[in-house]
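Narrative summary of target 7.
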Amino acid sequence: MTSPAPDIPPRFRGVLLDWRGTLVVGPSPRSLVVRALHVTGRDASPDAVAGVLEQLAQADDTAVASSAIDTDAALHRSAYLAWFREAGLDDELAAALYAAESDVLDNPFAHDVGPLLEALADAGVRVAVVSDIHVDIRPAFAAHARPDGGTWADLVDCWVLSSELGVAKPDPEIFRAALAGLALAAAEVLMVGDRGAWDGAAADLGITTLLVPPLRSAEDTRLQRVIDLVLPGASLSRSPRGRTTGPIERTDPSGVR
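Modeled conformation, tokenized:
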């Protein structure tokens, strides 16, 4: 819920939102390994998980650490599977681990995301989600219902995803695409992210940029800072009660995407 703001027009007409680390908590390597071992019916004891993590740590992850692979879904998959092969993982475990990493529904939203999206929509502020990601994240938003029968996805005006655009942060083209999608000038928009070298690059185009601490838990509430800049005087409650419900459903992937 959002408390009413004074009768002051929004300071920004649009907001660009990063996804992982800003709106959602990305799964940890340990949780991904646990899930992959369970899916393949293998030993998922702490020692077994530690063994897989050690194998991965010993392999060269230079390619997967680069945002360049987020510009193409096939390139992303190839880079990850090459890393898993070098680590000595068999094909079945590698496929399960990649499927787990690519499951957008396994990224819990912070509890203040729903209230933020509702507040921005109520104020007529346009929203773009700008993410370096190799899969479609729209289903993650669509999995959260609203009382009017819609979903959080209906509150996003523009999706700028690196794998669809062919460029990733900090390339300025990804931010230009977001501005074009919202039909707004840089001075009218606020960028919100958690990584200075990537999300902070929006400032080079004249976009005011807010860097928040990386999200560690869905319980963390950091998005009031966005409201303070966009809708001064308004406040977000910690809980989305009365505005949104939880995910509509949760399904496991059937294979590597």
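The chain is about 35% helix and 10% strand.
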